[in-house]
Records
---
Amino acid sequence: MNEERTQTRARLLRALPKIELHVHLQGSVQPQTALELARKNGIELPPCESPQELYAYDTLDAFLAVYSILAEAIVETEDFHRITYEMLGSAAGNGARHVEFFASFCAHPKVPYGRQFDGIRAGMRDALRDYGITSAIIPGINREEGPEAAATYLDQILKYRDDDLIGVGLDYFEAPFPPEPFAPVYERARKAGLRLTAHAGEAGPASFVEASLDQLGVERIDHGYNIVDDAALLERCRDSGILFTCCPSTTTYTTPHKDLRAASHPIRRMNEAGLTLCLNSDDPPMFHTDLANEYLRAVEELGFSAADIERTIYNTIDHAWVDDSTRRTWRSEWQPLISEGIEALRQIDG
Ligand code: ADE
Ligand code: ZN
């Protein structure tokens, strides 16, 4: 009976129209694709018996080490096309209609940025044609490389500016790399018309969330879990309605919060505290998940009600970096489907 209920929930959640605001292109490479690209490009991956075995870690830095090795296997324009097309195809299969994704251009030091952009944009175009899914690029700044490298990175990125390049993010290993030194580069990105977000409070303290808001001027916080340690900041964020892009499965790999059912799990607490949040997949194959499964885990393990799920979907519509006419169209076109799916979810629990 429980199994049947889970399957019904999974089917309903998958069918809901969704937006993904926190997924990394290089973290979305399917294991089989990684092995094939590595073989084709003559890149040696760590020895492993099966593709899945590559994707095993339980801390953020161990995960990032594998992320960096995998990125080396992506070399040619057609490789960037393939991983983008596969990521968006998978998102579409999970009910996503629009994806704003991080791309780590700096993870391929031997590949010119122009080639990376060409392949990624070709993948986006083909995914739009074949799956009807729209998408946009958020170049991720590698905080480990420091603010000077970040400034050069921004210069490079701006050379390839187009309407689909919508913002910048800050990622990689957080704890020893606070946000403040990146303030000048964020200021420059803002003046260039880019939208701003940053990973904060995943492996770093609540003060990194505060500094991302106050020093970097971000409009969204990626993860943000350690905000639960600072009641005043939590209240401030609840009142200002800043969006937190949460990723349930990620917490079980990169943070000490391995049990989504625990009353102390930060996403549960953030939801109960009334923060504005949404659900995302981060690095789906690398965390053995997909977008619809993140919604299922939110319901079955983090205690999200049908109303919470409905709210998270509308939060993504409200906070996507699109023009208001697109937002209005999404709201009116998706509303019947969302209402029907949410009502059916409510029925399951009687
Ligand atoms: N890059 C890809 N996934 C990440 C995460 N969860 N934290 C920091 N950097 C990342
Ligand atoms: Zn992330």
---
Amino acid sequence: MTIKEFVAKEKQALSLDVSGMERKPHLVIIQANDSPASDAYVRGKMRDCDEIGARSTLCLLPPTTEEDFLLQKIAEYNADDDVDGLIVQLPLPKHISEAKVKLAVDPKKDVDGFHPLTTFIPCTPKGIVDYLADIGFEFQGKNAVVLGRSEIVGKPMAKLLLAKNCNVTVLHSKTTEEDKVFYIAHADLIVVAIGRLGFLDQRFQYKESAVIVDVGINRNEEGKLRGDAVADLPVAVQTPVPGGVGLLTRLALMKNLIIAAKNR
Ligand code: NAD
């Protein structure tokens, strides 16, 4: 089953779930940038809400928005009983502290899973693990390599795989090439989230049975979206870009939104 088919199947189940709910889950997205990429992500999330029968509201603010004003907006939505999930689209303008914004969102509504006290699993790692479980990947005792150590992907991914009893190694920008070669060659699962076009390529050796999950979103010279891995590496499974982890991330957001609505 392709990721597209998996997501379609899961969304059907979510629609059924939502159709049985008296109050439809409501997601609020605050966007304080004018990035075309963010516009596309936000549109995608709102379309997903529509598809599963949930409600969504976009609060679009100019990039010149003051930090205090944004924090006040967050406080308003935190206090609004009709809002189940609240997310602030990244990136934020440079003059606004991402850390402050993440802390300001009520952990009960933090469906992105960014607050330190959140009960939600961040969407990209959650989407990946759900998909791996669906394709029958057995986590226990497997060598998992996570490339990248960001707060939103690398670190929570490593934590989640550890909770699934994988042997987890995190590689990052300060890891030597020699060590990367060693760990990648022994990996059963490689999650690459570094934002480097085609970083995983034929110069590495892979286990034939390995699974590569490509989180990276990069543009090639022709402006096309491509991942952190070159296509068709000699492994058992490799997720595509586009049409891969991005869809899984969006699906996980819808799952978190429904959980948030049910928790209330
Ligand atoms: P980031 O951009 O904040 O940080 C990059 C990470 O990669 C750092 O931890 C750094 O140590 C590591 N790194 C950089 N160069 C490296 C190298 N040569 N070798 C090993 N490690 C290296 O990370 P991010 O926000 O997780 O984003 C990573 C990529 O994933 C980006 O392309 C981003 O657009 C994409 N992304 C996709 C989704 C999705 O839903 N598909 C979600 C989030 C991020």
